[in-house]
Write a structure and sequence with these properties.
Strand order of the largest sheet: 1-2-3-4-5-6-7
Structural class: alpha/beta
Bound molecules: zinc ion
Helix content: 25-40%
Low-confidence stretches: 1-5
Number of helices: 9
């Protein structure tokens, strides 16, 4: 799979009448894909640099989820093209709560502190959050989509997990999937404040649904198209089952915080950003274990800890 790393920054024609625009990212997978199909643009990149929106024939813009590399260019793309923006109802509420509120980084840092994250690792988020937020130009007041909505012949699916309000768009066996299903990366599934309580449970259900839907091809936000979606979904379920076992194995009768458990599950050698992802991911597994009767949570009004049942 060679071409995932090539950043064309121009629309490239794939099969099924789909055009793909690949934009650079400073971190993570280093690139993100936007897709253009029959006038519908799916996702908009980070919103940095010059993007050839005006020449592309964009009639409407659809957002899979509110993470910066998908929604960050939406306002710019909408302004340049005059196209309306469509976003999930729950996803837009979270988008506003996170990118539209001044004290979100502080609230997030306080929440990580309650889960045992040391001061400097939690506080690093405050500076970064405030530095980053102004660059994420989501479109205000989009048209809202829900499970069962249709858009230009696409069926809208709610596929929660990677984000609570994550949408997929399905038409004629083609699924535009955002970060719900990626070929070589396990999409991050973290628990965050003011979010649905069991994101891993949501994600496992969304993967089961993907197996049932069995789309012929999936176009993801990162990496190459996936032609065996059901097999990839099964792999990801197995991966999380293993990680649930690892997480359960790190529990004792003494209360441990999600931060402490993340040191066992993800190793001790992570920088602040990666550590916060690891803690959020550990928490999504711990909360699933609580629901499966394999962990107990206590200390909801102070430092939160988990024990074996
Ligand atoms: Zn992404």
């Amino acid at each position: 799979m060679a071409s995932a790393g090539s950043i064309e920054q121009t629309f490239v024609r794939l099969e099924d009448g789909i055009q793909r625009l690949t934009l650079p990212l400073p971190t993570g997978p280093k690139h993100v894909h936007c897709y253009l199909v029959d006038g519908t643009l799916f996702d908009t990149g980070l919103g940095l640099g010059e993007v050839p929106w005006e020449s592309a024939g964009i009639e409407r813009i659809a957002i899979t989820h509110f993470h910066p590399d998908h929604v960050g260019g939406a306002a710019n793309a909408a302004t340049v093209t005059g196209a309306p923006v469509f976003q999930g109802g729950l996803d837009y509420a979270q988008c506003e709560r996170v990118w539209g509120s001044r004290d979100w980084p502080e609230r997030m840092a306080a929440w990580f502190t309650r889960h045992g994250v040391p001061g400097p690792v939690a506080d690093d988020l405050i500076e970064q959050g405030h530095a980053f937020a102004p660059f994420i130009r989501y479109a205000l007041d989009p048209d809202l989509l829900y499970e069962g909505s249709t858009l230009a012949g696409w069926n809208v699916l709610e596929l929660p997990g990677h984000a609570d309000g994550h949408l997929g768009f399905l038409r004629d066996g083609v699924l535009i999937a955002g970060d719900h299903l990626l070929e070589r990366i396990s999409p991050a599934v973290g628990l965050y404040p003011d979010s649905r309580p069991d994101p891993l449970g949501d994600y496992l259900a969304s993967l089961e649904r993907t197996i049932e839907l069995a789309p012929e091809i999936v176009y993801p936000g990162h990496g190459e198209p996936i032609s065996n979606a059901a097999a990839r979904a099964r792999e990801l379920i197995a991966h999380h089952r293993e990680r649930l076992d690892d997480t359960a194995g790190a529990l004792t009768s003494e209360g441990r915080t999600a931060y402490e458990i993340s040191l066992d599950v993800f190793g001790a050698e992570l920088g602040p950003t990666q550590r916060r992802f690891a803690v959020a991911e550990t928490l999504s597994h711990l909360e699933r274990l609580v629901r499966e009767g394999q962990a107990r949570r206590s200390g909801d009004d102070g430092t939160v800890t988990y024990t074996d049942p």
